[in-house]
Amino acid sequence: MGKGDPKKLRGKMSSYAFFVQTCWEEPKKKHADASVNFSEFSKKCSERWKTMSAKEKGKFEDMAKADKARYEREMKTYIPPKGETKKKSKDPNAPKRPPSAFFLFCSEYRPKIKGEHPGLSIGDAAKKLGEMWNNTAADEKQPYEKKAAKLKEKYEKDIAAYGAKGKPDAAKKGEMLCYIEKKFDRNEPKKPAVPLRTDHPVMGIQSGKNFINTNAADVIMGVAKKPKPIYVDKRTGDKHDLETSGLVPKYINKKDYGVTPEYICKRNEEVKKAQEEYDNYIQENLKKAAMKRLSDEEREAVLQGLKKNWEEVHKEFQSLSVYIDSIPKKVRKQRLEEEMKQLEHDISVMEKHKIIYIANKS
């Protein structure tokens, strides 16, 4: 925003700024002539702001949000005035400063060093030129120093002529120098030193400060003290401090009294999370079907497998000897008969029922 802009936008205010503004208006409404010490006022505002709850601060935060919306809304339509840039461009007609003897030496020997060392960096080249200049004898430096002196004389003449042309700028610079000298004048009388403890105050001085209004402002801006808990032994008896009476245990005065420890809260969260994972697992299993129906192809494949098994068992049964005169032979015959009987039952069930359900183990 330009300086002196009549349409300059008012900046957005923070919640604390609105709070300070409200506090500033409080003593002024009750005591219009009260003189408030700004440093004490700002200190008390800061203390009061720290003790306020989030609910109390909410009013000022809402005001800050509304003011921010107002600022953004006005900023969209604001067009700043065209003004001069802060940094002034250099005058191309101004004479350039002359190079020193060392720079003249560098301009002569830099191409030679670059030709001998093509990959040398700018910093290393400058370092090498400095070493060469230091090792150069005084009589060898004289041509460069004489040339630099002539260039300096020419520059002083050119700058004097250039300064004569731009007298208004020179006058402004003179005024600025006078202002700086006045502002930072070392001969200006200093403030009196802080009195020592042994110094006696000057008697008979009267202050024009209104202490009543100042004290009233301090009371308005001050934070009320919390009352101490007390107890009364009788209806008409004495009052005693409850904290030092011994009736209340000291551990209840701790800051973390009644607060659940962090490790218990963490453990409860872990238990709750584990319970949620278990419940989700149970729900996912319940969503899956407990039984599934066999398709016609699967039913036919099972039926053919049962018949093939029956034929194998029956073939083994036919290969038994005619005489069953030992216990192993009897046991084998009995086992084969039971297997054949079970297979025949399964085949009849599969042939009788077209729709068959089996347990879903997936």
TrEMBL record:
One of the GO biological process terms: inflammatory response
Domain Enkurin: 266-358
Name listed for the protein in its UniProt record: High mobility group protein B1
DNA-binding region as annotated in the record: 11-79, 95-163
Disordered as annotated region, ranges: 71-99
Membrane topology of the entry: Peripheral membrane protein
Gene3D superfamilies registered for this protein in UniProt: High mobility group box domain
Pfam families linked: Enkurin, HMG_box, HMG_box_2
Cellular compartment(s): Cell membrane; Chromosome; Cytoplasm; Endoplasmic reticulum-Golgi intermediate compartment
Family of this protein: Belongs to the HMGB family.
InterPro entries listed in its UniProt record: Enkurin_dom, HMG_box_dom, HMG_box_dom_sf, HMG_boxA_CS, HMGB
Ranges where the HMG box domain occurs: 11-79, 95-163
Keywords: Acetylation, Adaptive immunity, ADP-ribosylation, Autophagy, Cell membrane, Chemotaxis, Chromosome, Cytoplasm, Disulfide bond, DNA damage, DNA recombination, DNA repair, DNA-binding, Endosome, Immunity, Inflammatory response, Innate immunity, Isopeptide bond, Membrane, Nucleus, Oxidation, Phosphoprotein, Repeat, Secreted
GO molecular function ontology, one term from the record: receptor ligand activity
Biased composition range(s): Basic and acidic residues: 83-94
Keyword DNA repair carried by entry: yes
UniProt lineage: Eukaryota, Metazoa, Chordata, Craniata, Vertebrata
Record keyword Coiled coil present: no
